[in-house]
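yo

u said u wanted the structure for the complex thing, so here. seqs first:
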Amino acid sequence: MSAPDGHDRVGEILGAWALDACGPEENRLVAAHLAECGPCADEARLLGAAAAEFTESTESATGSPAQGAQAPPVLPASPSPAVTAGPQPHRLPPPRLRATVLAAAFARRRPDIPAAVAPYAAQVRALDRLLDALPPAGWQTRVAVRDWSVHDMLAHLAALDGVLAAHLGVAEAMLPPSTPDTSTLDGLAALQQRTAEVQAWSRGQQPARTRAAWRAQAAAMVAAVAAASADLLATRIDYGEARWRIDQVLLARAFETWIHTEDIRGALGMPAVPPAPEHIDQIVDAAMPILEGMMAASRFSHPDRAARIELYGVSGGEWTVRLGPGLPPATPDVTLRLDMLEFCYLFGGRRDPEGIRYDVSGDRRLAADLLTVAAGNPHD
Amino acid sequence: VGTAEPPEQHDELVSRLVDGDETAMGRVYDLYAGQVYALAARVTRDAAAAEDVTQEVFVHLWEHPTAFDPERGPLRGWLVMLAHRRAVDCVRREEARRRRDRISADYALALPDIADGAVTGVLGERVRAALSRLPDEQRATILLAYFEGMTYRETARTLGIPEGTAKSRMRLGMQRLAGLLRAEGIRP
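structre next:
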């Protein structure tokens, strides 16, 4: 968009820009140019970082006047003679300012994250904290999924988040662009290809960069959902093998982020940390229609049959699931009772259907088929 | 871009801020309020304005913790940059400008210098050393712009030099400064 001489014009004022010595019009010009010119962006970053060094970089300036050379100034505290050419106002913030500033900040607590995206946001934070504690070597730790490292796992999450992000209008410039023909593949193959693409890219990056890309994209998605209309969240998109509403896919992303975070914890020898009960409720609510779809499409489909699933534990509830096409019966053909977390791990492909404990009343064969299909959920 | 300071602990502080952790916010204030306030006080020369700037900077961080991108440098630099921008805005507001006009004559005679107590209180030791190695005319434009909050036009007027000269002195001086800081193993 810039004029042919935009580059030179911006170059001339980059020093002034780094010192905040340009006018508003020039600031806009620089901002627009930096977005499209790598060399100028590099120089701007360099000069800006140098300007940021002008202030003392000691880390305990607040309230510690015993800091040697930095003697407290002699000016009286009264702000009335505010402008004098020589002397300065106090260089140390008055102690009372701390309470004032923090109170002002906490009073303006950020708007609550909308329920639709809260489970996802919480799982992203949980994983992000786990990565905080990860020593550099930990990134290469193998997890029990394929032969992926922790780094590969994060690239996989970023890749699939990105499929949803695109539908939310979030363009993540930090991730490599997806190849154009991805959309011609069938659902699962497209997701797998995108994973392979982002993993190939990430292997040439520092893990911190992959993490920053994943986190920035996640933050942008949360912000986009917060600003989205109910209509947008109800829009159906292609995701994996079927078309799902965006709010369902958000919960699928929360679920996958949770399960993979547990994979990483497991690889590091750390105990599992389940999501908040209300988030598990939301995730299970979204999982049940998906399970119905999987039953209908599987060779274990039982037309005109239904099961009741009763879950208990961290939270709980009852769900009726159709086991195949057709009209469900007035009363379910079978009732299963099992631990809610165990059900989630099973549905996430982290439990064996034969090894899971459950109570059943009614047609045992239907129950076994349902659990077999649930465990076959094609999560990585 | 490598950083000398391990960013991990700051990353964690920022994650906790994203989580709405008030303790983390207190910690960030304790780490950086001194520098934010000192810079704002130096640029605005007004204790009340410096307090306002400090409050704006930290409230902004609390409300928009994800606006900070750790890839682009340390948290300290980002907060200082915000503080400087807001302090400069404050200085350039009409009222403040009139007030400053009264004192501009003094500045024309006594340009800020790195030996000046007012500036040395804010400048880091190593940056002061690097600045002292710049040609006088480059250093003068940089100090006027950064610490007096002058635009390059105002700087040119104050020094009686063409605007183009002020711009190029600022750029050359900042490039040189960045090179000196890098050579000494300081960020960037």
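DSSP finds ten helices and no strands in chain B. Confidence is low (pLDDT under 50) at residues 1-8 of chain B.
cya
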